[in-house]
Design brief:
The protein is an alpha/beta fold. It has 11 helices and 10 strands. Bound molecules: 5'-O-[(R)-(carboxyoxy)(hydroxy)phosphoryl]adenosine (KG4) and zinc ion.
Length: 343
């Protein structure tokens, strides 16, 4: 079946068409089309996503993207429409849901509510075929989320670890802001950290904490780490390039150590056969490399999304909609946006 996906949970407006086939035990996806407009640059002056601006931009961009995509296709090819119900910013989510409801009515198509986090998990099946050996652990690291999820099979999830405050991408963004770097801060911090590594600069003068590294649970906390960077920057005064690189490296090392340690614990507790990673933070080269090393030493297969599929997109929403359809999850046409929708 061919699904039109709609994503508006944060600062990307995206539409897609995905050909979905196979059963719940082995779903397959073929990318037909995908269009996206990122608002990230517009939010730069706010140092994060500004909900009402996001809403206004989605409202403006959705018809533009739809018109662009529909030039290449016919709504007759589409069997269903899937739209992000949550989690995300409610004013932003509503724009996609209302747009989806209007399309569904106009073209008489079923409308499927999709969970954004399920989208990030299934994003590893986009642009490639993979038969994942369950149980798996999914590590979801993005600007809005930091979760460890037990995946028993497609559609069967249990959140076993979560952040108590900031998400990991959010911590990157906030630390970047403290250091006077633009939003989104992840790529900026990671560039500086790589520079420190390539120049063999050691961060020993500026040690930062590893929050909750030894806690018994699988939860995370990044807000204290961000505050530690703030105090350090205040103490040091003006930062020269080398100091910036050192702080970035120490921050990235701290985040990586905590993520890798908790993921290892999760893999072992569940006896997982596979590690799935989703979310925009996986663009981080250091985190990616360390997770690949972890998978190798634990003897599990690792599945990472392509760059296109790792950041927010509508292909993963169409894919999550397909899983939902296969499971016959209740699909009232009159559903609401749920900002804190759970898996
Ligand atoms: O998944 P995503 O596109 O959007 C959300 O659902 O939040 O993730 C965006 C987040 C931002 O916080 C951004 O700073 C972070 O991913 N990010 C990175 C890197 N590239 C993007 N964080 C660390 N290192 C990177 N290279
Ligand atoms: Zn996301």
């Amino acid at each position: 079946m061919r699904i039109l996906g709609i994503e508006t949970s944060c600062d990307e407006t995206a539409l897609s068409i995905l050909e979905c086939s196979g059963e719940l035990s082995n779903p397959k996806f073929e990318i037909i089309d995908s269009v996206l407009l990122s608002q990230a640059k517009l939010h730069t002056p706010y140092g994060g996503v500004y909900p009402n601006l996001a809403k206004r931009e989605h409202l403006k961009n959705l018809p533009i993207l739809f018109e662009e995509m529909i030039k290449r296709h016919d709504m007759k090819e589409i069997d269903a429409i899937a739209v992000t119900q949550g989690p995300g910013l409610e004013p932003a989510l509503w724009t996609g849901i209302t747009f989806g409801k209007d399309l569904a009515e106009k073209y008489s198509k079923p409308l499927i509510p999709a969970n954004h986090m399920e989208g990030h998990i299934i994003s590893v099946l986009l642009g490639r075929e993979a038969h994942i050996n369950f149980p798996a652990i999914a590590l979801l690291i993005s600007g809005g989320h930091t979760q460890l999820v037990e995946v028993k099979s497609w559609g069967e999830y249990r959140v076993i670890g979560d952040t108590r405050d900031d998400a990991v991408g959010e911590a990157f963004d906030k630390v970047a802001r403290i250091m006077g770097l633009p939003y989104p801060g992840g790529p900026e911090i990671s560039k500086l950290a790589e520079e420190a590594r390539s120049k063999k600069l050691e961060a020993t003068n500026h040690p930062l904490p590893r929050p909750m590294l030894h806690s018994k649970d699988l939860d995370f906390s990044f807000s204290g780490l961000k505050t530690a960077v703030l105090y350090l920057v205040q103490k040091l005064g003006t930062l020269d390039e080398t100091t910036k690189c050192l702080i970035a490296r120490e921050f990235e090392d701290s985040v990586t150590e905590v993520i890798v340690t908790k993921t290892k614990k999760a893999l072992e507790e569940i006896g997982a056969n596979s590690l799935i990673v989703g979310g925009g933070v996986i663009s981080n080269i250091h985190i990616r490399k360390e997770l690949e090393n972890l998978a190798e030493s634990e003897g599990v297969s690792i599945y990472l999304p392509t760059t296109e599929a790792s950041t927010d997109n509508a292909l993963m929403i169409a894919a999550a909609g397909y899983i939902s359809h296969l499971q016959n999850r209740t699909s009232e046409t009159d559903f609401k946006a749920i900002g804190n929708l759970k898996l």
